[in-house]
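Technical note accompanying the year-one report. For the benefit of new consortium partners, we illustrate the data format agreed upon in the data management plan: each record pairs a sequence with a C-alpha cell string. No post-processing was applied to the example shown here.
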Amino acid sequence: MSHPIIHTTGICKSFGDHQALAPLDLEVGSGQIVGLLGPNGAGKTTLLRMLTGITKPDEGTLRMWGQPHHRDLLSRMGYLPEERGLYKSMRVAEQVLYFAALRGMERRDAEHELRGWLERLEVEGWWNREVADLSKGMAQKIQFIATVLHRPELLILDEPFSGLDPINAALVRGEMLRLVQKEGTTLLLSTHDMGSVEALCDDVVMLHQGNKVLAGATDEVRESARKGRIFLRLRGNMMAFAAELGARAELLSKVTEGEGSAAVHEVELALPDAWPMPGFLQWAVGHVEVLEARPVKLSMEDVFVQTVASASS
C-alpha cells in the first residue's frame, strides 16, 4: 500500500498567546481532491504554510510522500497562496516562464506547456501583453497557470476562484478535474466557494478556531448533517397530523397552498434515528394523503453554516 501524499500527526502552531492550529491529524491520499474549509481565522492558511515549508509546526509530525517534510519536496508541489501578485512591469509569458525557470523547467518545455495552458484557459492572445493590463480574473488565471505549469504531483490552492466570474470559475474547475483524472494530480483546495466543493471534492476537512470540527467523504458529511430531515407534500388535516406527530419528530417548517379540504401542505420534518423514513411513511399514510416524500439533501453551504454555528455555541 502506497504512502499518503500528506500525513500529519498532532501538528500545531501558536503565535504568541494565540493558538492558530490545535493538534491536527490529517491524511490526504494520492489522486484525491480534498476541500479545506472554515471561516476566516480558522487555521487554514497556517496549515497550508506548514505544508509548503513557509512555517514549521511547534509540535507533531508532518510527512509527505512518506518522508519527513524537507525542502527538496517543494519541487513536487504547486502552491497558489491567497495573497498573490505578479510583476506588473513584465509581460505575461515572460512572467510565467520566469517562475517555470525557478522550478527547474527547460525553456523549450515551459514554452510548449504555456501555449497549451493559455489555449485551454482561453487567454492565448495574452502572450506578449503586459501584466499591468490584466483584469483581476485574468491575472488569477495566469497565476493558476504559473502554479501548475511544472506539472506538480500535489497542488495546494488557496481561494483559486477569487476574482473569477462563473464562466471562468467553471473553466478552471474543469482543468482541475482534468489534472486529477488524467494526470493523477492530488489537490488540496482551500475555498469559501461551497459550490466548487460540491462539484470537486472527494473529502472535506473543516477547521474552526484552530480545531478540526468536521472531516470525511463529502457525500457522507452532507448525509450525516441532514439529521433525518425529510420533505413532505401532503393533503389532509394538518392540525390533527401535527397533534398525532407530537414530540416524535420535529416540525421544521410548513407552507400551505389552498384552503379547506383541497389545501396542500409542504412540510419539512427532522426524524429521530430510531424512526427511519420508510417506517415514518408507513405511519403517515394512515393519517394524511402523502403526495410526495423525499430526504432533504443539505448543500455544503448548509453544512458549513450549521457546523460553524454548532462549534461556536
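Partners are asked to follow this layout when depositing records. The first helix runs from residue 44 to 51.
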